[in-house]
Amino acid sequence: MAVETRVTAFQSAQQRFDAAAEVIGLSDDARRGLREVKRELTVHFPVRLDNGGVHVFTGWRVQHNISRGPAKGGIRYHPLVTLDLVKALAMLMTWKCAAVGLPYGGAKGAVACDPLKLSQNELEHLTRRYATEIAILLGPEKDIPAPDMGTNPQTMAWIMDTISMHSGHSVTASVTGKPVDVGGSEGRVDAPGRGATYLTLEALKYLHVEDEIPTMAVQGYGQVGRSTARLLSEAGLRVVAVSDSKGGVYNPKGLDLAALEEHRQVRGSISGFKKAENITNEELLELPVTVLVPAAVQDQITADNAAKIRARLITEGANAAIAPEADPILHEAGTFVIPDIIANAGGVIVSYFEWVQDLQAFFWEEEEINTKLHHVITRAFYEILHTSVNKRIDMRLAAYALAVQRVANATTVRGIYP
């Protein structure tokens, strides 16, 4: 009996790269270099806990490619994170930055821990010690971290301060996603949701959607999901369903988002909202809506449920919310997908703006940042759409093809040292 071997996250990332490399006819030499990460650092470090004991944590920082500029990527705190996943996410960051035209390479960092089980004091000690361990890779010209799952602006402030203490002066450009008080950028919190909103509106125009009031459902009512729902509602869409980890709520006539937010603040969840019926996360995905925004976790739309999706447009807010085997099913059914590689790129675009502002010590107002975000992300959308139409491939493969070509061009023209 044959044993089924499960594809790892990094192998899956390599498969997406291979498909894009095939589309653009990339040489074998170029493929060999870009299929692997440039460097991976594993660190084991002690942290004294509040009870006086010492726990040794394991962390990583991986750089995939830095041909186009400094490495860029978030830092994740999660108990189940692995080196394989960090490598996959670092590769994704390379393609994401290239797809939207940022002068960055891709990186990712992580610590295997459960931040919900650590006190604020323990989190600060862990963060500063981890930053010290990976500091040999970090710096405004080398590698610039940002928040990811389990980390936030406070985490970035601790990392920035640790690097600054080592340098003897404030190095604000060493991280992005910081509080505004220490060099953070206006507009950074809403950036992923705002980017997804701009793209959704452009796609609706391209698709000539004739719904009088387009409807939308959002799976994953976290920071990205909430801001996307709010901004698209302000743009004239009707939000009919949202969900979090405990379940969802649905009202075909539209949800009162202000009342829902008040309910969420009081109850800690959206479940039980009286002005809507309760539904499951699975049911939300299959609702008859114009726009579906999966902004929760990976592998929500799979080969099992892809044929049941009734949305005209999917804006993939979460990384890998659509499993690879679901892509061809959706494409065949005529469902237009804005893939994660661009759909959630608003965060890294405004992180780039933050880095630029820190380097020049000159800051922009939020209106200017939103205007620049709109320009960068919509330009990228139409470049990818052009590639998709010309090569007769889906939007994800088009985004990857465009990104891989840009990184390959930079890597090739730089050559091999020495």
Compact summary:
With 418 residues, this protein is α/β, with parallel strands linked by helices. Helix content is 44%, strand content 17%.
Walkthrough of the structure:
The protein has 418 residues and is an alpha/beta fold. Among the domains are: 39-170, Leucine Dehydrogenase, chain A, domain 1 (Rossmann fold, 3-Layer(aba) Sandwich), CATH 3.40.50; 191-343, NAD(P)-binding Rossmann-like Domain (Rossmann fold, 3-Layer(aba) Sandwich). It is 44% helix and 17% strand. It has helices at 9-24, 28-34, 83-99, 120-134, 153-167, 191-206, 223-234, 257-267, 281-285, 327-333, 340-343, 346-360, 366-391, 395-414, and strands at residues 39-48, 54-65, 71-77, 105-111, 143-147, 215-219, 238-244, 247-250, 277-279, 291-294, 313-315, 336-338. The protein has a seven-stranded mixed beta sheet. A five-stranded mixed beta sheet has the order 1-2-4-3-5. The longest helix has 26 residues, at 366-391. The model has no long low-confidence stretch (mean pLDDT 93).
